[in-house]
Amino acid sequence: MAKGYWFINVDVVDPVDFISYAHANVSFLAERKAKFLIAGGDFEHMEGIKRHRNALVEWPSYEVALDAYRSPEYQRIAAQRGECAITDVAIVEGYDGEQPSAAEPADSTPQFPRGYWMVRMDVTDPAGYEHYRAENVKALAQFGGWFLVRSGRSTVVEGKGRSQYIVIAFPDLASARACYHSFDYQQAFARRKLAAQGDLIILSGHAGRQPAL
């Protein structure tokens, strides 16, 4: 079964109150046994709109992720955040289809965190975008890319969103950056620029520290 994710992008406007929200959020997710894959930290903004804190939370399925967000317990926590941050949140469906690489990257550790692309897209030329999707796998395969999310179901539950969400895991941050700047990906990207408008950030995975979101 494909997993589900909370795809979160935040600008904090009241850091003091945000800390109280963050503690409540982390406790809720721990009780529900959800898993932080990305939790704040540094990132590299490559395209489109950016917010300054980003998170990706993994759930057993899209339905579980949506139900957890809609639960009364979490809605009380989200109301806390609404007073101290500008937030975009989408619940997105994971991907369990064919992959560009032979094996999923190892989980993040403090010594060896994964790298990620978090991507949001609005497609303007579906046929052209399909050509891009077919072409980008060559670059992803060279750098160990693995789709966690690939344009499955999504529900924007807070703020602004886009119609397509993509999350790609890499063995490390260097591989994630190198893939984006590679000749093969930039060739594919030239096609995507004509077929879609989007936001893309490159981030380091959560590696066991206290989550920031």
List the helices and strands and how they pair.
Elements: E1 4-12, H1 15-31, E2 35-39, E3 43-47, E4 53-59, H2 62-70, H3 72-82, E5 85-93, E6 115-123, H4 126-142, E7 146-150, E8 154-158, E9 164-170, H5 173-181, H6 183-195, E10 196-204
Antiparallel strand pairs: 1-4, 1-5, 2-4, 3-10, 5-8, 6-9, 6-10, 7-9
Helix pairs in contact: 1-3, 4-6
Looking at this protein, list some descriptive labels:
6 helices; 213 residues; 5-stranded antiparallel β-sheet; alpha+beta; 10 strands
Element order, helices and strands? EHEEEHHEEHEEEHHE
What does the main sheet amount to?
Answer: 5 strands, antiparallel
Which regions contain 5 or more consecutive residues with pLDDT less than 50?
A: none
Distance separating the two termini: 26 Å
Radius of gyration: 17 Å
Could you walk me through the main structural features you see in this protein, from its secondary elements to its overall organization?
The protein has 213 residues and is α+β, with helices and mostly antiparallel strands. 36% of the residues lie in helices and 33% in strands. It has six helices and ten strands. It has helices spanning 15-31, 62-70, 72-82, 126-142, 173-181, 183-195, and strands at residues 4-12, 35-39, 43-47, 53-59, 85-93, 115-123, 146-150, 154-158, 164-170, 196-204. The strands form two sheets. It has a five-stranded antiparallel β-sheet with strand order 2-4-1-5-8, covered by helices on one side. It has a five-stranded antiparallel β-sheet with strand order 3-10-6-9-7. Helix 1 (15-31) runs antiparallel to helix 3. The relative contact order is 0.25. The mean pLDDT is 94.
